Amino acid sequence: MASLAALTLADARFPGGGHVHSGGVEEAAARGLITGVPDLGSFLSGRLRTTGLVGAAFAAAAVVAAARPDAGWAVLDGELDARTPAAAQRDASRAQGRAALRAARLSWPSPVLDALCAVTPRPHHALLVGAVVGIDGGSPAEAARCLAYLAVSGPASAAVRLLGLDPLAVNAAIVALRPALDAVVAQAAQAAALSPDRLPAPGAPVLDLMAQAHVHHHREQVRLFVS
Amino acid sequence: MSADHGHGHGHSLDPTVTEPDPHVPQAPSGRAVRIGIGGPVGSGKTALVAALARTLGSRLRLGVVTNDIYTTEDADFLRRAGVLTPDRIEAVQTGCCPHTAIRDDITANLDAVELLEERFGDLDLVLVESGGDNLTAVFSRGLIDRQIFVVDVAGGDKVPRKGGPGVTTADLLVINKVDLAPYVGADLEVMTSDAHRMRGELPVIAQSLVTDPAASDVTEWVLAQLAAVRVPAA
Ligand SMILES: Nc1nc2c(ncn2[C@@H]2O[C@H](COP(=O)(O)OP(=O)(O)O)[C@@H](O)[C@H]2O)c(=O)[nH]1
Ligand SMILES: [Mg+2]
Predict the structure, then answer these.
(1) Which residue has the CA at smallest separation from atom 1 of ligand 1?
(2) Which residue of chain A is at minimal alpha-carbon distance from B70?
(3) Structurally, how many domains does chain A consist of?
(4) Would A225 disulfide with which of A22, A85, B63, B75, CB 3.0-4.6 Å?
(5) Dihedral (C-alpha) B161, B167, B168, B169: value to the nearest 10 degrees?
């Protein structure tokens, strides 16, 4: 049976603070780098294979960790920090993790969440998702799919709001990513039980730089999204 | 933020529940009372926040969360208004969806309120200004204890009649800018009587921040809410 937690966390109506994050789309749109659905499609494809893969792998690893007596959250937390070079992105990930934690504590109360919070009151989003899916009895692949999907669905929704793109066409662009999504999920699930330092670490320097630029611009002019 | 059922309704929709829930929502001891201020763009929400800060800022420990598209002009405006230093104002980004941030997914606002509470220790009152939105936008009861909906005379005297959850269910409806009524051909009588008809027993205040910069009636209402919502110190 599919994990209800994974479905809930991937639902745009889940009250976990996701709608205020554009995953770099606001900055890219402001620079004229995304103007239509084709640009968005390639942006999402790149994001899925980089940030998306890292998040999916750590979500999968968190499912494995959640089942252990000593989850080792601190090591996972540190390894994910190390794979997220932009401070703005670390901050965005923790803001979303903390927001989702509020809802998670009410819906899936568990000593596993307590232990994660004891290590960090602002957990990375991927670790929070993996912990919750694990608590709910879901598999590493389900957590990975949830995270990988969110890595593209959140930015896609932001693009619809910022650029007035056709939501039907944007939805089709997400679905067209299916082969890449499946590959990311498979790779993440395979890596789930590895020691944290062996988890995938692809980089996306342009996304890192744009995340920093977004925060910088936010101090000078109006921005509608946190990231 | 409790998961309790049937707040304030006296009956529950859950057939397995036999007793009505006697509890009305109460602020847990120690946390600030939270009042939401919603309403359409330009109706005077920020001006009301400034007026309340001016009249209450020296008597109460106050914090403000703003969901409006927040520019340095807004911050400057509130700073010029007197008692509000910038560190007492937290801005929330709403991802182009102001109503989502105050109703469907309140986490960013809860974070902002808690940040203010952590920064200043005990606060008495936190005002949460929503982004300007339409007549259907109301605050979640999980975010605020009471809410004010601000409409203005210049928006047309038909607004109260249109209803919507903001006009019909807010704890206080403010009809602002009554000084402008003669210039925009708005019939104040019609506005207030429509408002009362739509709202039943719920209060309506007509005001002008030009003729009454202290927002005296609203201030009085806010103080009454503080007395009513506050849990006696443990
Ligand atoms: N004439 C008049 N103008 C007002 C009144 N209250 C606010 N305003 C003005 O209306 C404009 C919009 O007010 P603001 O508080 O920014 O609206 P918000 O978008 O709801 O926050 C500003 O220029 C205010 O000075 C009022 O009672 N009378
Ligand atoms: Mg305003």
Answers:
(1) B177
(2) A222
(3) 1
(4) A22
(5) 180
Ligand nearest to the CA of B80: 1
Query: pLDDT, tens digit, for every residue of A98-119?
Result: 999 999 999 999 999 999 999 9
Q: Which fold has domain B34-224?
A: Rossmann fold (3.40.50)
Nearest Cα to Cα of residue B100 among B124, B131, B125, B59: B131
Provide long-range contacts, Cβ within 8 A and 24+ apart, for B1-9. B1/B142, B3/A106, B7/B141
Distance B177 CA to ligand 1 centre (A): 7
Structure tokens given for B138: 């109301």
Residue with tokens 């949460």: B128
Q: Is A153 within a domain?
A: yes
Residue A31: is it exposed, middle or buried by C-beta count within 10 angstroms (0-12/13-18/19+)?
exposed
Judged by CB atoms closer than 8 Å, whether chains meet at B111 and A21 is answered as no
Residue B176 CA: nearest ligand 1 atom is 27
Which CATH number is A166's domain given? Answer: 1.10.4190
Chain B hits for A106, Cβ within 8 Å: 3
pLDDT digits (tens, 9 = 90+) for B32-77: 999 999 999 999 999 999 999 999 988 999 999 998 776 666 667 7
Q: Mutate which of B107, B114, B143 to disrupt the A interface (most A C-beta within 10 Å)?
A: B107
Contact list in B for residue A107 (CB cut-off 8 A) is: none
Distance CA A53, CA A151 (A): 9
Q: Would A29 be classed as within a structural domain?
A: yes
Q: A190 is in which domain, residue-wise? A: 20-220
State pLDDT tens for residues A55-71: 999 999 999 999 999 99
How far is the centre of ligand 1, averaged over its atoms, from the C-alpha of A210 (Å)? 36
